[in-house]
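Why do we care about 3D structure at all? Because function follows from shape, and shape follows, mostly, from sequence. That is the central idea of this module. The next example makes it concrete: a single protein chain, its amino acid sequence, and then its structure expressed as tokens.
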Amino acid sequence: MPRTRTEIAEFVIASLNALGIEPHPQSRLMRMRRVLMDASGIIQPDHPDFETALEADRDMQLLEYVFEQDHAKSGHPGLKRLLRKLTDDSVLPQDDREQSRGRDTQFELFVAAICQAAGFFPVDYQEPDVTCTVESVQIGVAAKRIKSETQVQKRIPKAAKQIQTSGLSGVIALDTSVGLNPNNERITKPIPDEEFVPLYQEAINRFLCRYAKRIKGWVHGRGVIGIVVHDHQVRFETDASWSLCSMTMRFDTAEGEAGKRLFNSFVFPYVDALPNMQHL
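And the structure:
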């Protein structure tokens, strides 16, 4: 049976504690936990902590997935090292336009968790950000959050350079949750899934189409075989509930048939290993 929101928050904090991390009482994760506990999981739109509760829906679900994987259970030293950065950041991501070490780390951990769930062992936390093994080939994954469209021309070339420096064939994983929604506006219109999913997909397709030619130029000759875009938005459902909806899309940048085959061998198990979110 799926955990309730309150149970997810309790699980995340208990998992951190079990790995020797005790978040500060005023850290974003503890504030999120406190709001969910105080309201018993039911928070009305006029509540002063409503936005905190919606943000908790996103962060806590992603972290629940991280802590369900093998590395959290075994206390992998690379994971524990990164966890010390995890609790940084403001409660609302739009308040961290420049530095966002906590959520940047959270995304790296999420990508590593997907690689574990896909069975790409060994998985490690090293340059470019995460490494894993696909069909006996070690692959590097550069995990980057885009917080505004102006960052695209900085973050993608930086990720490509990291992959080139690592000497591995690599994939760039992008989180566009804030980049495509810089004011963190909520999807408040209750749209049925059959209408919402195509609209969501179209928004990310427009982003990829705008930058497709430049992306290929930025990654050319640097061993980047593809890009995976992750986006997570909190939406108002037709049954008057709120939920986390996620979209995952892929973009092939391989420059040869071997690279294309390797990207396909990576991306299909990777997407299939995602938690129970909507993805295409």
